[in-house]
TrEMBL record:
Recorded metabolic or biological pathway in which this protein acts: Glycolipid biosynthesis; glycosylphosphatidylinositol-anchor biosynthesis
The organism's taxonomic lineage, starting at the top: Eukaryota, Fungi, Dikarya, Basidiomycota, Agaricomycotina
Residue spans crossing the bilayer: 20-38, 45-63, 130-150, 162-180, 201-218, 230-251, 258-276, 296-318, 350-370, 382-405, 476-498
Enzyme Commission (EC) number: 2.3.-.-
GO annotation (BP), single: GPI anchor biosynthetic process
Source organism (scientific name): Roridomyces roridus
Pfam assignment, any one: GWT1
Name the record gives this protein: GPI-anchored wall transfer protein
Record InterPro entries: PIGW/GWT1 (IPR009447)
């Protein structure tokens, strides 16, 4: 077992990763699978509600294939999904649906004036991010998962490096919700907010500590230079919301995007000019701090990513991308959250930010900032890469929603005075307008997003059980794909089974 443990640890050591283009190609399969799903849903009779098994084949399975047997030919897999999508889109017109008149809509379905409607594109984005993470943590233990996609040792880009940063960015996006719902949240006293955040993060800290005990107790193979001897990703996730609360006085006056860039620049200065990089790479592990130097040193970089995610959340979550700017200046009113969504304006702002992040990433490469992208230290190029990728893909999901589920005209039809409130079946009454169905994330992805953290814990347990029950690094392609497919089916099946229940509320 000691020889196998050493072999397995060696298989994820000293890796230099792949390329940004390769990672983007693999990730694009997620967008194409959503396009195929949406095409079926809007153009094929009987496909409005797609059953679990079909959803599994259309959504998680392509992601698994893209990072395993199609990892080096992801463009071919995307094309295989794109051909039927293009055919159905061109061959069949969109289905019409009956939209009840405003007077016929039950009041319970109307969003509250001070509430904030869900954004299907964000649900889809977060669910796909979670799926890629859940699949990657087990797939990396099999040879069918290319080593170029595993986490890099010090510098480089890879699919798993992307997954870690995207998890943080995604949490940053949804952390904007309390700031948007309550204009007084940013100016509220710090201590009560810290107490609330601590209460919600204690379970995550506990999970991080439990993971340390389990890993050490079972002699589970681990890569020490990833986070350190005792540190793990759960501890990083738990600390970031605390740091965000401490920065609320600054967020009141400084745009979150600028603050995120500033924190990232500070991290880079510490790495390049203050000796932090040298400390991470060469300092011996002689005490608790140095034993966990990678996890501790990368915290500020991950905070930068979290803040950049927060900035994008303030754009995409409210109906208007300018809502948070008006809220900070005192020009927004609670009823603004119930206004119709301005997806076109949101898409333009997202595109602008995506261009800025990609350009800055390119400049960092040209100017030789650090030695390139580094997940290990969460340097500035890494933060820019994560922001560029995630902003671009949120834009992609939003664009798909705009294509397949275009909104109704802002001008509401006036019901006839003779039309009954219950509908329009009375002869002579004007029929309601017909149009595409309202945008909604696939039910399976909604289920995954609803219980993301419990599913992530289940995936970690499943990964551990698989590794303790078999020598994954010796598994052939057929065996590996069988185990990975079953694992994915179980995770998705549990999500589907609890789709109406939120298992864990933080």
């Amino acid at each position: 077992m000691d020889d196998y443990k050493a072999f397995k640890e060696a298989s994820v050591s000293g890796l230099t990763g792949s390329t940004v283009t390769h990672v983007n190609l693999i990730s694009s399969v997620a967008l194409v699978s959503i396009a195929l799903y949406s095409t079926l849903q809007t153009r094929v009779y009987g496909a409005r509600t797609i059953p679990f098994l079909v959803s599994f084949i259309l959504l998680p399975l392509p992601l698994l294939l893209s990072m395993t047997i199609f990892a080096n030919t992801a463009a071919i897999l995307a094309l295989l999904l794109l051909v039927p999508t293009a055919y159905l889109y061109a061959r069949y017109p969109p289905l019409d649906v009956v939209i009840p008149l405003p007077s016929a809509r039950p009041s319970s379905t109307q969003p509250p004036s001070s509430g904030m409607a869900l954004v299907p594109a964000i649900t889809t984005y977060r669910s796909h991010m979670m799926l890629m993470t859940v699949l990657g943590i087990l797939a990396v233990d099999f040879p069918v998962f290319p080593r170029a996609l595993a986490k890099c040792e010090s510098y480089g880009v890879s699919l798993m490096d992307l997954g870690v940063g995207s998890f943080v960015f995604s949490n940053g996006v949804v952390s904007a919700i309390p700031l948007l719902k309550d204009s007084r949240h940013l100016s509220a006293p710090i201590l009560p907010k810290l107490g609330d955040v601590l209460r919600r993060t204690i379970p995550i800290i506990a999970l991080g500590l439990i993971r340390v005990l389990l890993v050490k107790g079972t002699e589970y193979p681990e890569h020490e230079t990833e986070y350190g001897t005792h540190w793990n990703f759960f501890l990083t996730l738990a600390l970031l919301p605390i740091f965000q609360v401490l920065l609320h006085p600054l967020i009141r006056t400084v745009p979150a995007s600028m603050l995120g860039l500033g924190v990232g620049a500070f991290q880079q200065i510490a790495l390049s000019l203050l000796g932090l990089k040298r400390y991470v790479q060469t300092a011996p592990r002689v005490d608790l701090i140095s034993a966990n130097k990678e996890g501790i040193a990368s915290l500020i970089g991950y905070l930068s990513i979290h803040l950049l995610g927060l900035a994008m959340g303030t754009l995409v979550l409210p109906p208007s991308p300018s809502f948070f700017r008006r809220l900070r200046s005192g020009r927004a009113v609670p009823g603004d959250l119930g206004m119709p969504r301005q997806n076109d304006k949101t898409a333009i702002e997202l595109a602008s930010y995506a261009i800025v992040w990609w350009v800055l990433l390119g400049l960092s490469s040209v100017l030789g900032v650090d030695e390139g992208v580094s997940r290990q230290t969460a340097n500035l190029p890494y933060a820019l890469w994560i922001a560029a990728f995630n902003t671009s893909f949120i834009l992609g999901y939003l664009t798909l929603d705009m294509v397949f589920f275009p909104g109704l005209p802002h001008k509401k039809p006036k019901p006839s005075s003779t039309a009954p409130a219950s509908g329009y079946s009375t002869p002579g009454a004007a029929p309601p307008p017909a149009g595409p169905p309202p945008a909604r994330a696939p039910l399976l992805l909604e289920a995954i997003n609803k219980n993301a953290l419990p599913l992530f814990l289940l995936a970690n347990l499943g990964t551990g059980l698989v590794n303790l029950s078999m020598r994954t690094m010796y598994a052939g392609t057929v065996m590996a794909m069988g185990v990975l497919s079953l694992y994915t089916l179980v995770i998705c099946g549990v999500a589907w089974g609890f789709r109406r229940t939120r298992v864990w509320r933080l």
